[in-house]
Amino acid sequence: MKAVVNYADGPGKVELRDVAAPRIEGPKDIIIRVMAAGVCGSDLHMYHNSQGFPVNRPVTLGHEYSGIVVETGPGVTLFRVGDRVVSETPAYVCDSCVYCRTGLYNLCPDRRGYGVLEDGAMAEYLRSREAICHAIPDNVSFEAAAMTEPACVAYNAVAYHSHIRPGDDVVVFGPGPIGLMAVQVAKLYSPGRITVVGTNRDKSRLEVACRFGADQVLVAEETDVAAEIRQYGDGLGPDLVLDAVGISVTLKQSIDLVRPGGQITKIGWGPAPVGFSLDPLIQKAARLQGSFSHNWPMWEKVLLLMARGELDPLPMTKSYPIDDWKRAFDEMDSLAHAKSIVLPHAGAAKGEPA
Ligand SMILES: [Zn+2]
Ligand SMILES: [Zn+2]
Q: Out of 3.40.50.720, 2.60.120.280, 3.40.50.2000, 3.30.465.10, which CATH number does the structure's domain 161-290 have?
């Protein structure tokens, strides 16, 4: 079968390969015919070999996907051949640590994610597990369903890890897919104001932020962002800052801006040391909160919200047949749009099984 494989260390070591299709190995395994697979920022980092995490190369990329069940292990009871499903990202968790036993398996120390440590979703077929599959509502397309994963990252950050109340002022740094979905999730709380901050390379993504409900967007090179935001409301700063960029300079801005008693939720990764004092956090008695990944109930809730049209990731996406994977990567990398989706069975993705 066709698969987009990161085959070696070094920049650009990705190619379309013919690899063996996965097979059922355990009783609870499910083979999925992948209909849509999103390109994640982490896939681009692996493409450029700039990722800050260990990789088990050669590995098929991709962890945001949807598809159709084509085969089930003998112990599978919840899904049948032909079901439309999405699947979560941990190909393996230990099932015995304190996190696995309490449903927080995204924090399992032995977690092995698709597309990084195990073969991922940019392929015609993928082996998943019953425990991490979810049914796709009938009115949600495969392409929208493939965005459940990034939507859940945003949902976890806003709905689980942030204190947010109706009327709050919210600032989102970074109009990437996670920042954009965070706008949609924050919007569900009827915020007082949502401001999205990007750079002048982000203009098309900032337009999507407006479509997703941002009250204003600011371009860092064109505006004194801090001065502008201080003019809003009572001038004391936003109640919640969502940092979907992650680099040190954004964290510093977040700390400078956040309202006394407010919160910064850090979603974006920034491997460099921060290099500045965190004392303003103390003085402001502000909260700095990390948020990572997602788990079962979030997937169910995000799928419900997609079925109701309250979350709709499609305007930030563009789809490509798997043969055009390189264009999908390069165009997303150039920030032409927020999210590329690879279609391993192009032509069939929008409709039913083909
Ligand atoms: Zn991702
Ligand atoms: Zn575990």
A: 3.40.50.720
